[in-house]
Structures are given as structure tokens and as C-alpha cells.
Amino acid sequence: MASLSIDASSVQDLVSKNLETIPSRYIRPEIDGEIVATSIDNEVPVIDLSKLILDGNKGGFSNEEMKKLHLACQEWGFFQLVKHGVDEEAMKRMVEDVREFFELPVELKKECSAEIEGYGQAFVLSEEQKLDWGDMLYFFALPDSARNYKVWPAHRPLTFRETVNKYSSEMERMKTILVGLMAKNLGIDQDKFIDYFKDGLQSMRLNYYPPCPDPSKVLGISPHSDATGITILLQLNEVDGLQIRHGGNWVPVKIIPGALLVNIGDVIEILSNGIYKSIEHRVVINKEKERISVATFHEAHKSVLVGPLPELIVDGETEMYRSATSDEFSKLIRSQKLDGKSLLDKLKLKNE
Ligand SMILES: O=C(O)CCC(=O)C(=O)O
Ligand SMILES: [Fe+2]
């Protein structure tokens, strides 16, 4: 069976050589003529976290904002998070170090290449497969025991470890708050739900999408849903590009400076028996400007059997997914390229 591997070629390197034609492996005829929504009615919901944790996450929050959050998770699978209280210095350092990493000469970046983690292009399984117009550095950030420092930048940025330590613990804090709020909205035991994600694997994907002379022909990331619990995205240099599937269209996400973008992953879709949606998204490329982002993925703890929660299967509801262990989940993820919602489709039960 083919396995996920990282191809150590670099689009950034390719672009720096002033290419005149786009190599055919990057060209996507399927995106020609696809509809992209423009209406302002079609905007990703914005959630103000300060209205939800006024009183230490226990009470005093705004019911209206809670409803908005619930709807966002049900109908969009995405929301922009403002007034989130993530340490500003931690964010700023992440921005600086990620920029510095991608500015390194390609030889130094390639020193971070490996099998599943590392620098390069993800999910390359065959010679024929179309390639994404972007490079990444992917690594396990938490728990500490999951770290493989061989794929972390060895010299520059000098502060990389320190920066990731701080940022990843801030993301961990955010994850705990968010899954707690989601549990409350789902009417299930908050502590138990928080525990499912406690000490789960946290991985980071630093994405760098160079400009492309003909952006209408390429994609920065192929359409996919995230095979994780939740993802928290920092759109680092404020260049738009992310689009999400909504109502049959691709809806562009307009960056709100300082906001984080949160999305529900496959694991929460399964646990919630489809009440919360893990939505497909993709990245389009800009003609002049690069886009840089940091996605932090939060998985359930490896001991959790991921399946629809019995407390949500009430009143004649049927289970929409079969359960899978985290090992099985990882194997499924690594045996396929990024391809829409195919992981969820594999776990879907045919109830009809
Ligand atoms: O760069 C982005 O906006 C999206 C990144 C993403 O979807 C991912 O890393 O899974
Ligand atoms: Fe994603």
C-alpha cells in the first residue's frame, strides 16, 4: 500500500527561478469555471470569545453568542474567532519565526525533510498525482514525547523551539476552551469531552504559498476536510486565499486582522454523529503575493475510540459512522492523498 510521504521538492524554489510556464503537474483543469461566492451574506460567522468566557468558562457568558457558535459548527464547520485572548507576543513570534524559516535557502529547509513530518509537499503518493502550489513544514508539536527534533529547523530561526513551545501551549489552552464550549452546546458532559482531547497529539503545518503567474490554473491546497478534532488557523501575513464549501459554492474567507480561524475536523463530526460538520476547504493562489499560514491540528487522545457518542444517539437517531481507533484513523489518513471528504466517506455507515 502506498503511504503518505513528503516530496522534498519546493514550489518556492521553482518560482524563484522565474519560471515562464507552469509545469503540467501543477495545472488543475477541474477548477476552470468553478463558482466562487461573492455575496456579503455569505460570510463565515465571527465569534467573540470574550463573550463566552467572561466568568472563567463557567457562567456569565452570552447565550446569544453560544447560539451563534452552535450554528457556526452545524452549518459552516468554520468560524472566525475574535477577542480570543491568545498571548499577542506568542502570535507575533510565531509570525516572525515562520517567515524567517521560509526565507532560508532551500538547502537548509530541505534538511528538515523526513517521511511523515518535515519540509516539502505533503500527500504525494504517485508520479501522476497533481501537485499543490505550496510548500510546508509539518511536525508534531505536543505532547513533548511526540517531538522529533530532527525535522525541526536546526539553526535558524534561533528561537524556533521557544516560539513553538509558547504558541503550542496557547493553542492547547484555546482547544480546551473551545471543545468545552462545544460540549456545552451539544448538551454533553463538558469535562468528559475535554478529556477526550486532553494530551491528544497536536501537530502544526506551516504553509507557504508562493505567487503564481497564472493563479487560475493552480491550487495551493486541494479540497480536503481536516482529519482531526479541531484546527486553529493563523493566517499569518494577511493574504487571503482560503475558500470553504458552503451551500454548493466556494466561499472565500476574508481575513480579520488578529483573528484566528477555527474549523471542525472529521473526528468531531464523527463524535457528534454529524451534528457538527467537517467542511471541505481549499486554498487559491495570488498572482503577486505569497500567502503564509500556520494550521494547528488537535487530535483526540490516542486511547479514544472515535465513534458517535451514545449520549447523542437519542430519539430514534441512527449512528452515521462506524467507530475507529486512533491507530486505524492514522493508517487511513496516511494511505490517501488529500481528497475531499473521502476519509469520512470511508467511515460512513450506509443507513438507507
Ligand atoms: O492555508 C490555509 O489557509 C489552509 C491550510 C489548511 O487547510 C491545512 O493546512 O489543512
Ligand atoms: Fe485544512
General description of the model:
Helix 3 packs across helix 5 and helix 5 runs antiparallel to helix 6. The chain has a single domain, classed as Jelly Rolls (Sandwich). The mean pLDDT is 89. The strands form 2 sheets. Strands 1-2-10-7-12-5-4-3 form an 8-stranded mixed beta sheet. With 352 residues, the chain is of the alpha+beta class. The two termini are 31 Å apart. Helix 2 links the parallel strand 1 and strand 2. The structure holds 2-oxoglutaric acid and fe (ii) ion. Fe (ii) ion binds next to loops. Keywords: Iron, Metal-binding, Oxidoreductase. Its cofactor is Fe cation. This is Fe2OG dioxygenase domain-containing protein. It comes from Stephania yunnanensis. Belongs to the iron/ascorbate-dependent oxidoreductase family.
Write the layout of secondary structure elements.
Blueprint: H1 11-16, E1 46-48, H2 63-76, E2 78-82, H3 88-103, H4 106-110, E3 118-120, E4 135-142, H5 160-186, H6 190-197, E5 202-209, E6 221-224, E7 230-235, E8 242-246, E9 249-252, E10 260-264, H7 266-271, E11 281-283, E12 291-298, H8 326-334, H9 342-347
Parallel strand pairs: 1-2
Antiparallel strand pairs: 2-10, 3-4, 4-5, 5-12, 6-11, 7-10, 7-12, 8-9, 8-11
